[in-house]
Amino acid sequence: MQGPPTGEVVYVPPGYKYDVATRTWTSPSGAKYTYLKGPKEHAVEHVVAHCEHNPNKPNETLFDLEKDEVLPLLDEAWPARGEALAAGQKNVFVVEMGRPIGTRGETCVKIVTKPGDPSSIVSAYPIESRALALKQELAHVAKRAR
Fold first, then answer.
1. Which end of the chain is more exposed for a tag (fewer CB within 10 A), N or C?
2. In terms of residue numbers, what domain contains 81?
3. For residue 2, what pLDDT is reported?
4. Smallest Cα–Cα separation from 85: which of 46, 140, 47?
5. Total-model pTM
6. What backbone torsions phi and psi does residue 8 show, to the nearest 5 degrees?
């Protein structure tokens, strides 16, 4: 598989294309994954990290999946994402997957994309429902407005 130098990113399934110039993975359904905050953290690593408990984030939801199952799940969700929730500078999509995907029985995936680039995923994690995601985003926007 064509990709970055050894050791940069793992858990990318076959069929994903890697652009060396932008260091971006593109999935078969067109979702993009690139570096987030400089050269140290790639979106693939960030998304896959939602498979493991982080003691610094006790309320974080986790995928009930193996790491190599996360990107295929997102590639399944990507074409079904519909309209983004209004969220200021980022786009937030919530897709009902029709089956439990989270460790707490969540059946939806929340996908957050890069500001100004709605095809570049920066984060994704299980969530209970679209209504909960909308409530969270409205609270976040209100908090920023203060």
1. C
2. 17-145
3. 42
4. 140
5. 0.84
6. -80, -55
What is the rounded distance in angstroms from the CA atom of residue 118 to the CA atom of residue 19?
18
What's the pLDDT score for residue 9? Answer: 53
Rounded CA-CA distance 37/144 in Å is: 21
Q: Is residue 1 part of a domain?
A: no
Amino acid at 114: K
Instruction: Look at residue 12 and tell me if it is in a domain.
Output: no
The segments of the chain whose pLDDT lies below 70 read: 1-10, 37-40, 86-88, 144
Residue 44, helix vs strand vs coil = helix
- Domain tally, the chain: 1
What integer pLDDT is reported at residue 146 of this predicted model? 72
> Could you give the CA distance from residue 23 to residue 75 in angstroms, rounded to a whole number?
19
Say which DSSP state 42 is in.
Answer: B
Task: Please tell me the predicted confidence (pLDDT) of residue 6.
Answer: 46
Provide long-range contacts, Cβ within 8 A and 24+ apart, for 109-117.
Answer: 109/73, 109/74, 109/77, 111/74, 111/77, 111/78, 111/81, 113/84, 114/34, 114/90, 115/89, 115/90, 116/89, 117/32
Q: What is the DSSP letter of 92?
A: E
pLDDT given for residue 120 in this prediction: 92
Residue 4, in any domain of the structure:
no
